[in-house]
Write a structure and sequence with these properties.
Elements (H helix, E strand, L loop, with lengths): L9 E4 L6 E4 L7 H4 L3 H14 L5 E5 L6 H16 L4 E4 L8 H4 L2 E7 L18 E6 L4 H10 L1 H4 L3 E7 L5 E6 L2 E3 L6 E3 L3 E7 L2 E2 L17 E6 L7 E2 L10 E2 L2 E2 L1 H13 L2 E6 L14 H5 L5 E3 L11 E2 L4 E10 L7 H7 L4 H20 L6 H12 L11 H30 L10 H5 L6 E3 L9 H8 L2 E3 L2 H10 L3 E5 H10 L8 E3 L5 E5 L2 E2 L6 H13 L2 H10 L1 H16 L16 H34 L1
Parallel strand pairs: 3-4, 3-5, 5-6, 6-7, 13-17, 13-18, 21-22
Antiparallel strand pairs: 1-2, 7-8, 8-11, 9-10, 11-12, 14-16, 15-17, 18-26, 19-26, 20-23, 20-24, 20-25
Helix pairs in contact: 2-3, 7-18, 10-11, 10-12, 16-19
Amino acid sequence: MWKYLVYSTLIIVNSVHGKTDTMKLLPKNNEKNASEFNSITDCIISISDKELFFMPTVAILKQAENNIKENLFINELIDKLTLFNIPQIIVEEIDNEENHELYINSLTIAFIETCDDINKIDFNKVDRAMRFLITISDSTKDKCIENLQEIGESISHDAVTFIFRSNEADINEMFTIFPKIDGNTCKEVVDEPKHINTCINGTLDNDDIFPIKNPGNLNKCPFKVGMSTLFPFSTMKNKEKLKLYDRVDDIKGSDFEIMKIINEYFNATLEIYYIFKTEENPYSDVEFIPFVINGSLDACAGGIYRIYGDIVEYSGIYVSQGIFWVYYVEREDRSWQNLMHKLNDIYIFMIFYISYSIIWCLIRLFDGEAVSLMKTLLYCWGALVGASSLQDPRSRKQKFLTLMYLIMCIYLSAYVSMQFYAFLTITAPPHTFKTNSDVMESGRTAYLKDITKYFISDERYTRFANKSADCVSFLDCSEKTLLYNGLTVILQGFFYNFQAATAVNDEARILRATENILTVYNEMIIRKDSPLVEKFQKVMQRLFEAGITRRLFTEAIGISVVAKAKSANTNMISSSYSCQAGCSITLKQFAGVFYAWIFGCIISSVVFILEIFLKREKRLLTKIE
């Protein structure tokens, strides 16, 4: 437990036990002696400002009762901390079992008068969460560095920093000890104390106070990485012949390129080993995890997810990709059947045509004029299609009725013309699905692999998946979708290749639903006790923030493939409206009209010839009679 020294007016809250302890100030000497530590206490205030955040605490380790210099240092430090409203607490010893939570946002400070006193601190009790700043009053820096080397192994991984008072009162140098990898034995050893920062009059040269101490230079020692296969993260030739933990040299993919960057950062020798993982179901294979735990592998990659619990560490998200529905589409060809489908509202004009004919006959009968219903229907139809004129109106009401009917004929002509124009110049877009609900309500057959199709626990999706047809792999499911106008679920990494390969005339034949079924986030795994964990995660975060991991992911798929897929997708949608502003109609587009005219001419010629023969026969019969 923390052991508190009581001093007067300052009230301190013990954040661990919830008690309030009253402390009394230690005996002070004159102001001249107190100013001896002015520069170094200013440095501690600056360090506190950078290291402490919400609800900070400075823990001051009191080691001796009658050490005058230590008392002066502590008194002046307390005055400065109080001036800046920084809570402080004085302790007599360190206990890393009872007070772990206090270390999370606290700064522990100890004062050492001479370099020989360094060994009096029990560094075995230093908690990994603690930030321990040791102030050394001795100006014989070279001797102190020798003493630091003696205790190097006990603090090489802890956040322990030493701050030396220089011969010049205003300059204070900060040192710490780092571990390093021996290039000959590839084992971790202690490096000599390293100067990391300088504080002059309370101003720090840089932000390095408690730097990450894990080795960053492997000195060409092996960096062993397990690699599974999943396009575009990693692909290997003849992977079917490989066994678990086989050495691999011929490999491609975005994860391999990322590992080359990290390997260069660590100055290591990259060694790739094969690990088996089912591409369609990564949850089923965990045989390679013991190789990570026992140290045979430093890290694993190849399209891996955060699915292995806390037995390993993770690199952090470096790329994400969607899982979504894809479906087959084909633009409708131009045909007269499609044209008639576009003219499905023409029945309204037929109603007006019949109504006009009946009203015309009734008006003529009312006016006492002779009228023929068949003749009226024939003339009205001819006027409607622009082939003949209407019957001559003889009264004002007949003229008014005829005028209204002619106006309707003009509207019909405009309507048919617009439909012809749209039919001949604007290609309609295919029917698309935006949401997952649209896909499942489409009535199409889904092709899904039996052992992997229940990857989410959504009740509606499960019901739809129960009705799906079976396929054996991503490739087989995709081919059946293409052949049978169906649906399937695909990873974004596979989608671009599939869409680009199946494009016809630079237009996509495979489209995706806008909504993702699921978004997966890929993370590499690292051995939990590896000294490379923190720096590995830091490098991966920088690569991700710089967009390098996404760029490598795209390059592994193929920049030209992605560009072709996006272009084909755009063409399928946007080209449908390419003539929206107006396009010229050629004779070729009206060829059907000429064919109909030629057919009508042939029929007319046949009828004409038949009439000639019939007239001749009638004349012949007349002469005989």
